[in-house]
Design a protein that fits this description.
The complex is a heterodimer.
Chain A: E1 2-7, H1 20-32, E2 37-40, H2 54-62, E3 69-73, H3 81-94, E4 99-104, H4 109-114, H5 123-141, E5 149-152, E6 157-159, E7 169-170, E8 175-176, E9 191-195, H6 200-208, E10 211-213, H7 219-235, E11 244-250, H8 257-267, E12 271-276, H9 280-296, H10 307-311
Parallel strand pairs in A: 1-2, 1-12, 2-3, 3-4, 4-9, 9-10, 10-11, 11-12
Antiparallel strand pairs in A: 5-6, 7-8
Chain B: E1 7-12, H1 35-47, E2 52-55, H2 66-69, H3 80-88, E3 95-101, H4 107-120, E4 125-130, H5 135-140, H6 149-167, E5 174-175, E6 180-181, E7 196-199, H7 204-213, E8 216-219, H8 224-238, E9 249-258, H9 262-273, H10 278-288, H11 313-326, H12 330-340, E10 344-348, H13 350-362, E11 368-371, H14 378-393, H15 406-410
Parallel strand pairs in B: 1-2, 1-11, 2-3, 3-4, 4-7, 7-8, 8-9, 9-10, 9-11
Antiparallel strand pairs in B: 5-6
Helix pairs in contact in B: 3-4, 4-6, 6-7, 7-8, 10-12, 13-14
Classes of the chains: A alpha/beta, B alpha/beta.
The structure holds flavin mononucleotide.
Chain lengths: ~325, ~425
């Protein structure tokens, strides 16, 4: 059973926010307990008082940890696809292959207003734009073949020009020739995490996502969605085990190891993701009480160098 | 109170600033995929008490011709904001400055990112504002060509106004030509209030924007006279914005090649020059001159007459001026230019290099320097162990950090 924790920095309010040292301590504790990945949330639909933006925080965390997967949310409205693809490809190299992008699908009402889109997007435009965005990012990530870099000082060839492929994407919302100016990442492509899914989004996620986070706690609902995702993944020609579905749950005091194990088993999901509130007291309680129990209940036994390896994603996801 | 001291920045660039650096036998050729390499460089610079490390940036390949691009190390590297965020956790004092484009970002997003870097680093972040002069970058953001220079600067001015407003906690309610922003910044005030503002444009528009908003200006100059003229010009523009000459630190680039004797240093430089393929040199020169086909002119002939481009106006003028002044052929100019992209080069002993830096610093042509080692890590190590102690002996450079934040290192006031 996979175990992810979601550190919800976007929910920070008031004075008791976590500093970098406290976040590092939490992530290292999670790493020691075998947690597969920590997901750093980002801008919410209300102002937060977290001192950090997710991708910059993640880069710093990458240098002070060495096993745990690191996933950051980054919004498709706040970034351009070229910039975002670069950021995550760099993060994957910095972390030696432990990074994922949480591509949230919900529209954040504050973002359009602060990112020069006062007119906003209709839900349908937003969705079509999002798919385009994700497809471009993926094309940019696979632009350099694994062995494209030659480093041949004597002949003067740094890379093999035949192993560098432009994206040449032209769509309804974006046009991006590429290629990316960051090398192929250690995971080939950073892990793509999707959350906040509804309706037609499920279909896209089934085709593209490596990890889907469900936000329905009730086990029967979670099971139905999980089954639907796996079925559609299969229809799209993917091995259904190559897409991991994690049930959501709150990492607060209402849960213990047994209830989470039950939730995971009855939902049929591949594991769970626990939300930890960004306050010192909540983090302390989580680390001292819940983390040891989860270990006892058989969560997070996975090994592996990269996040893909840990999640058992390596095979199907090679582009 | 101690005498005025110079500021030093370390200009990072994967394998080094010389276009052929990656082919140097001791250059770390995997620099662009090795974070530990950068951590070591930043820690070396910090041990030598540099004010800051600085990353350039472009959101695209440097060179459109793939055959040329594949003979350089510049088509891959780290995205600088992730790189510097990683360095923030592995260093304690040194400033961390990254370039980011006003043309391909939004002010609200960049304000959050740099505020976050400032928080992560305990007040060491800086932003180098550029307007991006490459059509390759423009294409990656859906444009069919480079937008006119004046338009790019109009957008940059609006960008600077909005981002400083966000950092200074004004409620923007901004609805302008290029941007609209409704809410105040959702990241609490960072240790420096606002990250240090750096600029590197040297056209008239560029200098004016710098006079209005920059804390630090990077520049390129060959001769003392050029450096002095730029320095006086920029400092002269400050009064119009109610600012004092000391509010802005001007730091020209310098590419030193240092060794125990002058002959040894010259031999090191010559060996690197031997490694430049002609077509690579000419292509690099062409891109800075905003001309696509310099290769069709005779390589041993003079530089043709060139129209003013829409790219980097100031660098174009500087290169043309040098070609005329020294009567250089295209080949000679390309080889010279490949060493440091038009920045000032000094080849010599630590004493000779210190003499030259001292003369520009004390002669009122610089407040400090942006050091551009020819190849990494060797030329940085040489500068740190030979030149820095010489500058310290002369009382020209600090022996230890006076403060914690980049603003404190630079002797800059806190905004607001
Ligand atoms: C030391 C130095 C570093 C620079 N770094 C960058 C850079 O990283 N990216 C970029 O687009 N321009 C860079 N430039 C040039 C830009 O600052 C400038 O915006 C240019 O694009 C156009 O300005 P101008 O025409 O006003 O000179 C640099 C210039 C100097 C002197």
């Amino acid at each position: 059973m996979h175990l992810a924790i979601s550190l919800n920095i976007a929910a920070a309010d008031g004075q008791d926010v976590l500093d970098f040292g406290q976040i590092t301590a939490l992530v290292r504790n999670a790493e020691a307990a075998g947690v597969d990945m920590v997901i750093i949330s980002d801008s919410a639909d209300k102002p937060s008082s977290s001192p950090f933006e997710a991708t910059t925080l993640l880069a710093a965390l990458a240098t002070v940890t060495d096993k745990i997967g690191l996933v950051a949310s980054a919004s498709k409205l706040a970034h351009q696809p070229y910039n975002l693809a670069r950021r995550f490809a760099s993060l994957d190299i910095i972390s030696h292959g432990r990074v994922g992008w949480n591509a949230t699908t919900a529209q954040n009402p504050r973002e359009a207003a602060n990112f020069s889109r006062p007119e906003g997007f209709s839900d349908d435009d937003f969705r079509r734009r999002a798919w385009e965005f994700i497809n471009i990012v993926r094309l940019l990530w696979i632009g350099w073949e694994h062995d494209a870099l030659l480093f041949d000082k004597a002949s003067g060839r740094f890379h093999d020009p035949d192993k560098m492929h432009p994206a040449n994407f032209t769509g309804e919302f974006f046009s991006v020739p590429g290629p990316l100016n960051v090398a192929r990442s250690p995971q080939d492509v950073p892990v793509l995490v999707m959350s906040g899914l509804a309706g037609t989004e499920l279909d896209f996620a089934s085709r593209r996502a490596d990890v889907v986070l469900l936000d329905k706690l009730e086990p029967s609902g979670a099971r139905a969605t999980r089954d639907e995702i796996k079925r559609r993944a299969h229809e799209a020609g993917r091995d259904p085990v190559a897409i991991k579905v994690l049930a959501v749950a709150d990492g607060g005091p209402e849960h213990d190891g047994r209830s989470l194990e039950d939730l995971c088993l009855s939902s049929g999901c591949d594991g769970i993701v626990l939300t930890v509130q960004p306050r010192a007291a909540a983090v302390e309680a989580f680390v001292e009480r819940l983390l040891p129990e989860l270990k006892r209940h058989g969560f997070a036994k996975a090994q592996g160098k990269t996040l893909r390896d840990r999640l058992g994603l390596s095979e199907d996801s090679k582009p | 109170m101690s005498a005025r001291q110079m500021k030093l920045g370390l200009f990072l660039w994967a394998t080094g600033h010389h276009i052929a650096a990656w082919r140097h036998p001791d250059a770390h050729v995997r620099a662009g995929i090795d974070i530990d390499h950068y951590i070591k460089l930043a820690q070396t610079a910090e041990a030598a008490k540099f004010d800051m490390v600085f990353c350039e940036d472009a959101a695209g390949l440097r060179e459109a011709n793939i055959n040329i691009a594949s003979q350089t190390s510049r088509s891959i590297g780290f995205e600088p904001i992730s790189l510097l965020s990683a360095l923030a956790a592995q260093t304690e004092r040194i400033g961390l400055v990254s370039t980011a484009s006003t043309s391909y970002n939004e002010p609200y997003g960049l304000a959050r990112t740099f505020a976050s870097l400032d928080n992560l680093s305990g007040g060491r972040a800086g932003w180098n504002l550029v307007t991006s002069a490459s059509p390759i970058e423009a294409a990656n953001f859906g444009a069919t060509g480079l937008r006119p220079h004046a338009d790019r600067y109009a957008r940059a001015r609006e960008f600077a106004t909005v981002i400083t407003g966000l950092w200074n906690r004004r409620v923007p309610g901004h609805d302008g030509e290029s941007f609209s922003v409704r809410d105040p910044l959702d990241i609490p005030p960072s240790p420096q209030g606002a990250p240090v503002m750096v600029q590197a444009g040297a056209s008239d528009d560029g200098k004016d924007l710098a006079a209005r908003t920059a804390d630090v200006v990077f520049s390129a100059a060959q001769t003392f006279e050029e450096a002095k003229a730029f320095y006086d010009d920029l400092k002269g523009r400050l009064a119009a914005y109610g600012r004092q000459p000391d509010d802005v630190k001007i730091m020209p680039g310098v590419a030193p090649v240092v060794a125990a004797t002058k002959a040894e240093a010259q031999a090191k430089y010559d060996a690197l020059q031997e490694l430049i393929p002609d077509d690579v040199g000419v292509a690099l020169l062409s891109s800075y001159l905003s001309i696509s086909d310099l290769g069709r002119y005779p390589i041993d002939g003079p530089l043709p007459e060139l129209p003013e481009g829409e790219g980097m106006k100031s660098r174009q003028a500087l290169v043309i001026e040098q070609a005329r002044r020294d009567g250089l052929s295209i080949r000679q100019l390309a080889r010279y230019f490949a060493g440091a992209r038009g920045h000032w080069r000094i080849v010599g002993t630590a004493e000779q290099i210190a003499d030259e830096l001292q003369a520009r610093f004390e002669g009122g042509a610089a407040d400090g320097f942006n050091v551009m080692p020819s190849w990494f890590p060797g030329e940085l190590d040489a500068f740190a162990t030979l030149v820095v102690p010489e500058l310290q002996r002369r009382g020209l450079f600090r022996k230890d950090y006076e403060g914690r934040t980049l603003r404190e290192h630079l002797g800059l006031k806190r905004p607001i």
